[in-house]
Structure formats: C-alpha cells, structure tokens
Amino acid sequence: MTEAEKIRCSNDLDLFDALGRDPTIVRIKERIARLEGDAPFRTRRRLLATAVRLSPAMAPSLRSMADACIEKLGVALPLELFVFPSPQHNAMCFRPEEGRLLVMFSSALLEDFEGSEIVFVMGHELGHHVYAHHDIPIGFVLRGEEKPDPRLALSLFAWSRYAEISADRAGAYCAEDQEGVARALFKLASGLSGRTISFQLADFLSQVDQMQEEDADPGAGAPSEDWFSTHPFSPLRVKALELFHRSELVNSAGGSIAQLEMGVQKLMSFMEPSYLEAKTVAAEAMRRLLFAASLTVARADGEITQAEIAIFEKFFGEGAFKETVDVSALEEDLDDRIGRVKEVASSTQAMQVLQDLCIVARAEGHTMEPERRVLEDIATKLGFSASFVTRILEVDLSPD
Predict the structure, then answer these.
(1) Closest Cα partner for 347 from 277, 278, 265?
(2) Are 364 and 353 in contact (CB under 8 A)?
(3) Model confidence over 351-387: pLDDT tens digits?
(4) What is the dotted CATH code of the domain comprising 281-393?
(5) How far apart, in whole angstroms, are the C-alpha atoms of residue 298 and residue 301?
(6) Would you list the domain boundaries of the chain?
(7) 113-159 pLDDT, tens digit each
C-alpha cells in the first residue's frame, strides 16, 4: 500500500466501492465508454485553445511544486499544467487523456496563493487522480437527461464530500504546512488574497461551533440544501485536516485511524439529513431497521441488559422498550427491513444506522463476539465490509 493509499478517507473508499456496483452507475459508465469509442473527448484540445499551457520554462517554481507532489503521491503519468483567466480561486484535474494528466488553475489562484498554499491545491487536484475519483461519473449522473433516484443522488453528493476529504489529505501530505493549508482553504472560501484581511485560524474554525449551535434542535439535522453540496464547507475541511494532523497517519504518537475517521464522519454529519425524527420514507425505514436490529444485536449474547435498554431508549424515548416485545419476530423481519433501507436510503444514511447499532453493542463498554457477528452480517447485507464495523467499534462511541 502506498503512502497516498494509507491516508485516503475510509468513507470515501467505502462509498466509492458501493457506488461502483450501483446498476445506474455501471450503466452510465458503459454508455460513456461507448461515446468515447465513437468520438473521443478532446479536453486537451479545448484547453490548448482556451487556456495557456504553462511550460517548465514559463513557470519553473510551479513545475517544481508539481514534481514534488508527483513523487510523494506516486503519480505515474506525465503532467501538463494550464492557467485560464478568472477572478475566482479555482483549480481542477481532468481525467487522463492520451496518456497525459491535465491540471488547470485560475489566474487569480496563481496570483493570490503562495508557496505551500499552491502545493496544497496541486496535491489536492492530483489526489483526485490518484484515488480514481473520476471513475464515478457524478456529473453525467446528476446532469444527465435521466434523473437519478433521490437515494442515489444523496449517496453521490455524500461520496463527493468524502472524496474532497481524501484529496485534502493528499494536498496536506504534499504541503507539510498545516497553517499554509488552512490559509489556502480560507482563501478558497472567502475569495480574498490575504493582502487586506488578516487570516485568523481560531475565528475561522469558530464558524463550525456556531453551525452546531444553529443545528442543535433535536431531529433538525442539516438544512436540505447542505445535502446536495459536492464539497464540505471550508471550516469543516480545516477541522477535518486538524484531526488528520493529530492522527497516527501524520504523528506516530497521534490518535488511531479509527478515531480519525469517526471524527471526520461526525463533522460530515453537519451536512447529512437526520433520520431519528425526520418524516420521510427513508427515515422511517432507517428507524424500523434500527429498532429491530438494536434488539437483535442486544440479545445476540443471550439476554438484553439494562445498559442496552438504556441506550435503546436514548434513541426511541423513555419507556420504548417493552418486556413483551417479540425479538424473535423482529429478527425474522430483519432482512426485509435491511432490504427496504437499501431500496430507499442512501449509503451514508445506512452508515448512520450502522454507527448507531454499534453504540447499542458497546452499551456495556465492550462488544461480545455474537454481537459483532450480527453487526458484520447487517453491514454485509447493507453493502459494506465487515471492516467498517471493526473501525466503528474501535472508537469510544456515545449517542449525540
């Protein structure tokens, strides 16, 4: 496993794999392959006509930064750099074409960003290539004539946000300058050059705390417009990178990878719909699965303990557990409830249910092997690997 692969966000990879198996995604990728066979896309030709190619002689410093990122991330293809006129801070990496990798920057970004800030952006864009993010044709799916079902759309947007987290880590790995990376994200978010406004990291990050206060009402979750964003909010990205820099991936004495990924997932939940009180078809299916699966997991080792009942009632309300409940009947219905969640909920919503089930399993501070087996079986049937459960159980969880 390469260093770049080691730092990839696990939820990016899990969702990437799940989306790669989705019938709609498979069908659209086959259609794209046929189109490219009939009339190859000519992105490079368009860039040569509308942008300026930056040769090593024209931009030696930029080329040096690119070469350093290429070496660190293990990029195998030759790279061409372009700049296009725009007052916006922007950059993009295109799918490889004719054996070349193409990265384009806006003129404003190259004028306003400095040193490690540019290296971060360069590494971020190359990260999208290294992690094969272009293999999920999100633009074709969301902007095509055939509109995807809402479940798939939510999964695509959520995956895209986690893909940005992976690319941010690639950029930070290349930049090796936490403050410079934070400044770059501030400039991207604000459109400022830094010449007239003084960047204050603590003030920038305080926006996350204020978002949390705004979303504090029980069951409110994130505003619906957040669900359909392809990028995490910039303060969330900085917070996620702080977790990355405090983890063992960067610091040998840092926190575990499992703690890092659960911390990132908690941050990303700011942009996810809640399901415990929402009145949607998907939320209802998720609650029904959580209800049945919680009691099935709790009884897996032979009995349902008071600690497990207490956690169960934190989710469903005081007095929700009844001694007369037929857990065997719920267990028999479990596959149907799993199937319903797969049918109407997004992959990230299914992840939320799994995380909450792990909280029930950890009610007494540890997990018994029968409980773990039930959790792994549910995860597999929802389309995730058993390792997803392992990662969650390695972290000290508590319900929000």
Answers:
(1) 265
(2) no
(3) 888 888 887 887 777 788 999 999 999 999 998 888 8
(4) 1.10.3680
(5) 7
(6) 3-271, 281-393
(7) 999 999 999 999 999 999 999 999 988 887 777 777 767 887 888 89
